[in-house]
Amino acid sequence: MTEEPHRWVEAVANRREYIETQLAGGSPIVAISAARGILLLTYGRDRQKLFEIYDRIAMGGIGHPGDLERLRLSAIEMASQEGFTRSPADVSLQRLALFALSPALKSAFEQIFSPPYLARLLFAEVGAEQEADVFIALDYDGSVAASGLPPHRPSRHFAVLAGSVPAREAMRTFLSERAGSALDEATALALALEAWAIGRMTTETAEPPELALVHERFTELTTDLQPEAAWLDRQLLAEPPLPFSAYRAFTEAGNAWPQWAGASL
Amino acid sequence: MNPPPLTPATACTELTAHPTAATVQGDFLSLQSGRPFGGAEASFHGPTHRAVGESSWQPTSATTVLGFRYADGVLMAGDRRATSGNLVMFERADKVLEIDGSSLMAIAGSPAVAWEMARTLRHAFQFFRRTQLQVMSLDGKVRALSRLLRENLGLAMQGVGMVAPLFAAHDSVRAESRLYFYDALGAEFESVDFAGSGSGSIGVRGILQYEDRWASKLNERPRGSAIQLAVRALESAAEMDTATGGANLRKRIFPTVKLLTARGIETVPEEELQAVLEEAP
Question: Which residues are CB-contacts of B238 (< 8 A; sequence separation ≥ 6)?
């Protein structure tokens, strides 16, 4: 089969279609840069979907739990190895995602006799100031959507992950008009919730629905789902305690949680 | 015709030298594949080199560290001097090290090896927490240090890399802070009241024993009284042991005193230590 090029192309196309179908139902993930740091937010049924990878790096994923778990462990292992042998300052999201994970995802995807990763990953790395925040989304075929990397800085201040292309595009359109520098915590949280709902509501068109409709349908969209959120806290970078981690699971939203969003964290 | 073998996608094994499947879950040390701790030459403490098996082999550790249980948790303190033979190499060495938010290690012996052990533990505990999504248990932490000491036995027997640490960690299950001391082979002992290590520890242990028996129970003493006792005991050790550094108010060198409680770790500020030192009659 591999001796015939067109058969290989066909096999890869089939595989792409299969994976897209598998991922289509995935709950979207939003990452937004704010003054305090990077907020990551999603809703899930039972599994944890947001993870700490290293001191300044967090990950969220859509896909098969087993594949997500293997990729998460690989990422932590690589970051920890580098942080131990050189220094935690040498661990960067760019190196981790672009030089190691992306090629591995690509080759797993294209080796048609072995199973691919059913996974879509979103990484965020918090910087000393908002302009230095880095976001990288990796797809199952190793393709990359990055923001905040040199030489194309500055950062777009957000990144999204969704089960389907229309959902992703709708979330992007919505956030690119609103995300920006110096968002406060409550604004960032509201934007993240709205973007998540927009991703959840969109199946066909890439036009985001009206905000009023989003608010109205929010509780219905989150039936049987639990919110999950985390901060990569920029304020901790100024005087890093030892051992350091900027990742803080977000458990108490308090007054920042909008009324229309129903049950709080 | 047989179909080609189906191999699972192996990013883990491609990306890192050590496949996850072959290692203990969450074990950072196995990722390091037998990396030794520090360089043997880097010892500050210039001990006498003797062949393995020579009967007069004596471990040397020029230091005083102490730990005891007081009312709120565990106090750990140490002097600041690092020596090489008769030379004072460094007067601001930190020998009481924070491993994570709820564990402390006090080191006596070769600083190169000890600091590397502390660094390894920090990474190992973080790695475990990140990969396994839970905090390592108290027993797990205590055993991890024991394993590092055991692996260091070769260097210790050559007389260059001996480390005899104290370790304290908060036990969230029993809601109390616990204190352990180790021998150079890695045997761990839980200390019910106090422990000391290093060349100046003989005097310190005498003082702590005396205070505990005849003055008031160490584990009932409040914060202020515990700090005072630790500083005074270290000062006495510095008087009797050449390799233990005393406080130096002119150069503003103070011993390290850290408190481990249910709330976390607190480093006693220099001003407070200075006040304790100045109140001597």
Answer: B64, B79, B200, B244, B245, B246, B247
Residues 6+ apart with CB under 8 A from A110: A12, A141
Q: How far is B5 from chain A (nearest CA, A)?
A: 8
Band of the pLDDT at A256, cuts 50, 70, 90? Answer: confident
Closest chain A residue to B29, measured at CA? A81
Strand order in the sheet with B96-100: B96-100, B103-106, B166-171, B176-182, B188-191
CA distances from B83 to A163, A190, B131, B205, B241 (A): 62, 58, 39, 22, 12
Rg (C-alpha) for chain B, rounded Å, is 21
**Of A52, A74, A114, which is closest to B8 when you measure between CB atoms?**
A114
The answer to whether position B10 is within a domain reads no
**Is B4–A242 a contact, with Cβ atoms under 8 angstroms apart?**
no
The predicted model gives A172-187 an average pLDDT of 91
Query: Up-side HSE of residue A242: CA atoms within 13 Å toward CB?
Result: 10
Q: SS3 of B179, please?
A: strand
SS3 B240: helix
Nearest Cα neighbor of A31 from A54, A3, A60, A6 is A60
CATH of A5-261, one of 3.60.20.10, 3.20.20.140, 3.40.140.10, 1.10.10.10: 3.60.20.10
DSSP state of B141: H
CATH code, domain carrying B100: 3.60.20.10
Best mutation target, B130, B133, B148, to test chain A (most A CBs within 10 A): B130
pLDDT tens string A201-233? 987 776 778 899 999 999 999 999 999 999 999
What is the pTM (predicted TM-score) of this model?
Answer: 0.88
The strands making up B256-261's β-sheet, listed across from edge to edge, are B194-197, B65-69, B73-78, B256-261, B264-267
Which among B6, B16, B99 has the least Cβ separation from residue A81? Answer: B16
Q: Using a CB-CB distance cutoff of 8 angstroms, which residues of chain A are in contact with residue B258?
A: none
DSSP H or E stretch at residue A72: helix A65-85
Q: Which residues of B belong to the active site?
A: 63
Give CA separation, B67 vs B105, B145, B169, B261, in Å. Answer: 10, 17, 12, 13
Find the domain containing B178 and state its range: 65-278
The reply to whether residue B130 touches residue A53, judged by beta carbons under 8 angstroms, is yes
Q: Write the DSSP string, A153-170.
A: PSP-SEEEE-SSHHHHHH
Residue ranges for chain B with pLDDT beneath 50: 1-22, 38-59
Show which of residues 87-106 on chain B sit within 8 Å of chain A, judged by CB atoms: 98-101
Flag if B15 and A100 touch (Cβ within 8 Å): yes
Torsion of CA B202, B205, B206, B208, to 10 degrees: 160
Say which of B11, B31, B120 has its CB closest to residue A108. Answer: B11
